Amino acid sequence: MTPVEIILSNWDAVVNAYQETKSWQMVYDRVPALKEIGSSNTLKNQGTIIHETMQWIHRYGGNQDKKEHGAKQKKLNISGWSIQQDQKGYYRAFKKIGGKLRGVYLGRSLEGAEKKIESINV
Q1: Cα Rg of the chain (Å, integer)
Q2: Which residues fall within 8 angstroms of residue 107, CB to CB, at 6 or more apart?
Q3: What is the Cα–Cα distance from 35 to 77, expressed in whole angstroms?
Q4: Could you give the CA distance from residue 77 to residue 13 in angstroms, rounded to a whole number?
Q5: In this predicted structure, what is the pLDDT of residue 100?
Q6: What's the rounded Cα separation, in Å, for the pair 31 and 7?
Q7: How far apart are CA 23 and CA 45, in angstroms?
Q8: Rounded to a whole number, what is the largest CA-CA distance in the chain?
Q9: Which of 22, 48, 56, 104 is most buried (CB neighbours < 10 A)?
Q10: According to the model, what pLDDT value does residue 83 have?
Q11: Strand ranges (E), 1-122
Q12: What count of other Cβ atoms lies within 10 Å of the Cβ of residue 116?
């Protein structure tokens, strides 16, 4: 088996040990099956890559309810203001007023967005 296959086949034990110790060397010592990969440095390098990849999959590909990475958003409009959501989930409203682009921060949800926008329109 390759080092990646060994790490993945013992992933639950690896994650649990890492959460407890925060040390790849300690994980290597606590999970006997990892001795097959050679050294703790191999575990550190491969484990870090696997962990970051799994986080990326969870963030962008693991949840069908969330927008796909790089996908076009549906256009929202409130009282003539264009609404955009950034990659972190924050909403902003934009509108050209008097030849200048104005922006309003709305927060993580659109609750109360209309009130915030109306206060700018006055």
Answers
A1: 23
A2: 90, 91
A3: 58
A4: 48
A5: 93
A6: 10
A7: 12
A8: 69
A9: 104
A10: 92
A11: 76-78, 81-85, 91-97, 100-107
A12: 17
